[in-house]
Amino acid sequence: MKLLHIDSSVLGPHSVSRQVSSAIVARLREASPTLDVSYRDLTQTPLAHLSGTHLAAAQGASAPAELAADLAASKAVLDEFLAADIVVIGAPMYNFTIPSQLKAWIDRILVAGKTFQYGANGPQGLAGGKRVIVAISRGGFYGAETPYAAGEHLETYLRWVFGFIGITNPEFIFADGIQIGPEHREKALASALQAATSLRAA
Question: What InterPro entries does the entry give (predicted)?
Answer without folding.
Answer: Flavodoxin_fold (IPR003680), Flavoprotein-like_sf (IPR029039), FMN-dep_NADH:Q_OxRdtase_AzoR1 (IPR050104), NADH:quinone_OxRdtase_FMN_depd (IPR023048)
